[in-house]
Amino acid sequence: MNTERKSYSSNISDEEWSLIAPYLLLMKEDAKQHHHDLRGLFNGLRYVIRYGIAWRAMPNDLPP
Questions:
Q1: Interval 8-48: pLDDT, tens
Q2: Is 61 helix (H, G, I), strand (E, B) or coil?
Q3: Angle in degrees, CA 9, 62, 23, rounded to 5
Q4: Rounded to two decimals, what is the model's pTM?
Q5: In sequence order, which residues have a C-beta less than 8 Å from that of residue 20 and are 6 or more positions away?
Q6: In 1, 13, 15, 18, which residue has its Cα 20 to 30 A from 43's Cα atom?
Q7: Rounded Cα gap, residues 12 and 20, in angstroms
Q8: Computed from CA positions of residues 2, 42, 8, 11, in that sequence, does the dihedral angle turn out positive or negative?
Q9: In angstroms, rounded to a whole number, what is the distance separating the alpha carbons of residues 11 and 51?
Q10: H-only helix segments in the chain
């Protein structure tokens, strides 16, 4: 099974991520609260903001 995700047009670029990540990574990567990839979660939020969809309509390959 291929677990690699398809890229969405709303995904954050590496350059944008390098500017935003320091503000979002105040908590250590190995903290108990980190269950999902932070960049994946951020991309999911950007998808919802960009396309204005209901949470139930989120693509199933984005983090829960």
A1: 888 889 999 999 888 877 776 677 666 777 888 888 888 88
A2: coil
A3: 75
A4: 0.62
A5: 12, 42
A6: 1
A7: 10
A8: negative
A9: 12
A10: 14-24, 38-51
